[in-house]
Every structure is written in C-alpha cells, then in structure tokens.
Amino acid sequence: MAEVFIAWEHYRHHGDIQVLQNQYQSLVKYMDFGQTQMSNFLIKQGYGDWCDPVLSPVTPRVGGRGTPQWTTTTVTSTALFTQAANYMAKIAQVLGKTAAALQYQTLYSNLRKGFHNALYDPKTGHYGSQTADAMALQFGITPVELRQSVADALNKDVVEKWQGHSSVGALGQTYLYLSLSDYGYGDTAFNIFKAKGYPGFSYLFDDLNGTTLWERKGAFDPRQDRGPLRSLSHPFHSGYDGWFYQGLGGIRPLEDTVGFQQFMLKPVFPTGLDSVKVRYENGYGVISSNWQRKDKEITWQVVVPNNTSAW
C-alpha cells in the first residue's frame, strides 16, 4: 500500500502532479492485485501491526518474531487497502480519469462496509484493538454517528486496559494519537509518552537506558541478557512524530487543497504540557505554530506564509 499512500501524500503536500502521472499505471496494477486478494471485501494476508507489545516483558510472543498480538492481519490489511482505494479515487480525479475515480469510490465504499460489518462489535462499541479503532477513525471507515463512541472506547482501552499506554505496533503508531486528540482526548494522547513502566517510552529510556527505538520492547533486557536478538534501532515505531506537527502544533493540510496553500491551524493543549514550538517549511515558506501556557492562559503565536490562508 505504501506506493499509493506516498504518491497521494506527496501530491497533497507539494502539489506535484508529475508523480501521480508517472506512477499511475503502477498504482493501478497494485490495486488490481489487491482486489484479487479480497474475500467479502476483506483481506486476510499480511504482516499486520508488526511488533506490538506483549503483555509483559519476556512473555513469549504467540506466533514468534514480530507477530501481532492484539490486531489481526485482516484488520490492518483491509483498513490500509480501504484507504488506498480512497486515495486512488482522488488520484484518478486529479488526473481527469472520471470513470476510474468512480470505480475506486465504489471500491472504497464497499471496503468500508465490509470492514465495519465484519469487525465492529456493537457490544463493546469498537473494533477490538487500539490500532483497529484508530485506523477505522482515520480512514473514514466508522459511520459518522459512531465515531465519537468508538473514540470513547479507544480512550478507555488506553486508560483502563493498558494503564495509559499504547498497545500499537509499527502500523498503529501513525494513527493512534490523532484518533484520540481529534475526539477530545488530547491529554490521553500526550500522556502515553509519559506513562511509567512497560511498555512505555519510560520503560525503554529510563529503565533499560535505551537511546533509540527498539524493534521489540520486552524482548531484551541489557541488565540480564548478553546481547539483543532484534534490532535496537528501528524507526518504524516512530509514526507518532506526525502528531507533534498535526496535533500539538495543529498544522494540517485541508482535505481538498494541495501544497499548503490553504491549511488548518488547530492545536491541542494537553494539561501536562506548558509550551510547544512547531515549524513546517513548504513551497510557500515557513508555517509556525508556537504556544505557551502561563497560569490559566495560553498565548498562541502563528506565522502564515504570504499567498496562503489558514483556517
């Protein structure tokens, strides 16, 4: 799915249509193949939310290696392919391929319905894991009338089941934090970074004296083991960094504009954070969003480049 995501996001952020033109046939071939893997608009093959945390340190991982423990491959493969169909509809529309755009819009709609009907549990009010809920919310899979309640269930899973920690792996990192802060849970999103103990960042950096993002927290303890069995520098766990810009800084491209000629400024102000400085450079110049809390007041300073508009 990465080729589709990268092509669309590159165009969305930079306004460069040439990438879409050059890659379009390759993207079509990928989407054609993906549809051969579907059954009832679900895709079961894939690696899934790789290297999510086991329940406690040194607990054997069911399935071995980085096999997901909390999110099935059906969830991640179907959700990502659903969003790929959404992006392909947009790409085809930009390129003036009206019939193809309609085809991919129909595929997107059918995949959304297939995912929701198969995986949403009306008794629990969500899709079964933090990654599943986050992807469903961020990809527009969850019906509008259920989105707040799914976000409520996601927040409850983080706060109560995982004592303030995330249970996501490599794929869920990108979507978890916005799915919380977009629905009123900015404090929960921010507090994940501060949560003490396993499997949080505190465990990695303070308890194990890590200085990088390890492939698998809980699989290696330098205080007891002679050497690691997995990578100790694995930036695929760093998908949270987009939230620093989009959430804490609030700098986000508007849905139907490209190149940040028009963009949104909508930061969240977590209770436990007193200041933020975010700077994003694009073709029009530098966008900055800086805020500081003093007592009960927040001072927010922004820079909007010439020839652009912020909302």
Write the topology of this structure.
Blueprint: H1 2-14, H2 17-36, H3 73-94, H4 98-119, H5 130-138, H6 147-161, H7 173-181, H8 186-191, H9 201-207, H10 241-248, E1 251-253, E2 262-265, E3 275-282, E4 285-294, E5 297-303, E6 309-310
Parallel strand pairs: 2-6
Antiparallel strand pairs: 1-2, 3-4, 4-5
Helix pairs in contact: 1-2, 2-3, 3-4, 3-5, 5-6, 5-7, 7-10
The proportion of residues in beta strands is 5-15%
Distance between the termini: 31 Å
Largest sheet: 3 strands, mixed
- Uncertain residue segments: none
Find the CATH topology of the largest domain: Glycosyltransferase
Q: Which structural class do you get from the secondary structure elements?
A: alpha+beta
Give the C-alpha Rg: 20 Å
CATH class of the largest domain: Mainly Alpha
Structure description:
Residues 3-247 form the Alpha-L-rhamnosidase six-hairpin glycosidase domain. InterPro entries: 6-hairpin_glycosidase_sf (IPR008928), 6hp_glycosidase-like_sf (IPR012341), Alpha_rhamnosid (IPR016007), Bac_rhamnosid6H (IPR035396), Bac_rhamnosid_C (IPR035398). The chain is built from 10 helices and 6 strands, in the order ααααααααααββββββ. By secondary structure, it is α+β, with helices and mostly antiparallel strands. A 3-stranded mixed sheet has the order 1-2-6. Strands 3-4-5 form a 3-stranded antiparallel sheet, covered by helices on one side. A hairpin with an 8-residue loop joins β1 and β2 (262-265). The two termini are 31 Å apart. The relative contact order is 0.10. The model has no long low-confidence stretch (mean pLDDT 95).
